[in-house]
Amino acid sequence: MALMGKREDYGDGATETVVGASVKIEGDLVSEGDIRVEGFVTGKVKTSKNLYVGPQARIEADIDAGNAVIAGNIKGEIKIKDNLLIQETGKVSGNISCARLSITEGARFMGSCTMAMPESGDMEPVVDEE
Amino acid sequence: MYFYIFDPGKDKEVRYFERIQGRLLNLLAENHIEGETYRVTSIRTVELLVEQAIGLEARTIIVVGGDSTLNRAINTLIRQNADITVGFISLDPGSRLGQIFGISPDIEQSVKTLAGRLVAGLDLGEINEHYFLSKVELGENQFSQIEPGIFGLSSVRRFMKLQPFEINLSLDNKYKVSSEVFGAQIINCRNNEGCKVKLGDPTDKLLDILLLSKLASGQIIRYRKELATGCLDNVPGATIMHAKKVEVLGPRKLPLSIEGQVYTKAPAIVSVAKRKIKMIVGKTRQF
């Protein structure tokens, strides 16, 4: 599955949750559809589908999503079932767990990353990076 | 048994109704859905007629009138706990509910829709024991009450006068939302024509919360059509959320309105009602 790069690449917007830039959310933001965050979220963010974090967004929360594209600022534990892309404006501080990872040049990441290895299927820590 | 409630409320509806009344009754007979017909008067209100229909054990109540008549009939049915199917023939060609439910403004088509008897169980929103089909608008800025005018220019002046306001919500007791907004709506169903995002599915057991962030003057002019048609999600920076229950925490005394009428003030709870309403809908419905 190709990693998502654009807003149009995922979801049909039918049940999408969108957090606008001026909005502040405190608590458990749980959705069955895609979630797009442009504002400020503290607590928890959970979806089985796709998560997009905009360049001006700030999340201080644990994240649990199917796929994620991060272009904003995140502090928290990130668990992604499939693909995780950190774009050039993305800043992640926290531990990551995902199946596939892509970090664009210019992005910043501080934490550990755990990825499933295809042969054995065991989870192994890969590397601590900044 | 079909029970017809005729309520041409506004002057233009009365004139239209007088013109089409004979033809309407003929069409009902041709399609074998004729029944008892009653016209709303100052004494014989919509609520009394619905109660009369319940007493007569009517199987279907057909409202011939405007959106507000339909809302009143549904409220009475729900309060009386009546299991009756509702149909609608709109006398207002601009009827929002008619467009949402696929009821044509042409009476021949709308009678055929009724005869087709495609019944859907629809969610209702509930606020202070009042039930609504469409949406609740929060605050003084009620976009649904502003007419677009020619090229949307007359509405621009009204939009420019609107002031942003703070809002605090709690959704499903799971998370709190706070923001400074230009407009806020809690939607059960809406006319999605021209809107990018399909919101307001009255069968999904959810309410859609739509917040419009503060806009600069240039943005108001640029997005005047979207503001006037209610497609606030087309405006950049809009927030869309979904919940079964929305607690409007503040600011205190923030008005909550349905179709321009204030029903309560914050703090208040808006939720999906436990009961659904069975309604005859058309093939061109928006859900």
TrEMBL record, chain A:
Pfam families: Bactofilin
Similarity remark: Belongs to the bactofilin family.
Name of the featured protein: Cell shape determination protein CcmA
Natural source organism: Candidatus Doudnabacteria bacterium RIFCSPLOWO2_02_FULL_48_13
Automatic annotation (TrEMBL), chain B:
Domain of life: Bacteria
Signal peptide: none
Protein name stated in the entry: DAGKc domain-containing protein
Gene3D superfamilies on file: 2.60.200.40, Probable inorganic polyphosphate/atp-NAD kinase, domain 1
GO molecular function ontology, one term from the record: kinase activity
InterPro entries xrefs: ATP-NAD_kinase_N, Diacylglycerol_kinase_cat_dom, NAD/diacylglycerol_kinase_sf
Organism: Candidatus Doudnabacteria bacterium RIFCSPLOWO2_02_FULL_48_13
Ranges of residues in domain DAGKc: 1-130
A Pfam family this chain is assigned to: DAGK_cat
